[in-house]
Amino acid sequence: MKKNSIKNTRVNAEVQRELSHIIHEEIKDPRIHPMTSVVSVEVTPDLKFCKAYISVLGDEQAQRDTLAGLQSAEGFIRRLLAQTVNLRNTPEIQFISDQSIEYGVRMSKLIDEVNESADESEDGQ
């Protein structure tokens, strides 16, 4: 896998920051959950396509609704992105659900449970 150039890394960070701002401040779609975050963004080197990894703190239905709302607002988001980020091409955005934050929280809870049960078994001896 090719390592990102410094320019591509900067473009990814700028697009991620602006997407996050647009999702929280500009979009008024009720399907989009208020606890939505842009985890990461990958823009292709030719600036034609963009994968935005979205995490939603909520149930499965909230995730599906949020992704549907974002997909339907893709043209609006793209237009606002073109106005705020000065790029040669404004990329087509593909929204992808990312459960890494939920996975991390679940693993943390499991580790805490194991630690608590280990502490209780040590106290009982």
CATH topology value = GMP Synthetase, Chain A, domain 3
Mean pLDDT score = 89
Content of β-strand:
15-25%
Into how many domains do the coordinates divide? 1
Order of helices and strands: HEEHHEH
Assigned CATH superfamily: K homology (KH) domain
Write down the Rg: 19 Å
Give me the CATH architecture, please. Answer: 2-Layer Sandwich
Strand arrangement within the widest β-sheet reads 1-2-3
Q: What does this entry show, briefly?
A:
With 125 residues, this protein is α+β, with helices and mostly antiparallel strands. The chain is 56% helix and 18% strand. It is elongated.
Defining key terms:
alpha+beta, 4 helices, 125 residues, 56% helix
Word description of this protein:
With 125 residues, this protein is α+β, with helices and mostly antiparallel strands. 56% of the residues lie in helices and 18% in strands. It is built from four helices and three strands. Helix 1 (6-26) packs across helix 3 (74-84). The longest helix has 25 residues, at 100-124. It is elongated, with a radius of gyration of 19 Å. The N and C termini lie far apart (52 Å).
Topology:
Elements: H1 6-26, E1 36-43, E2 49-56, H2 60-72, H3 74-84, E3 92-97, H4 100-124
Parallel strand pairs: 2-3
Antiparallel strand pairs: 1-2
Helix pairs in contact: 1-3
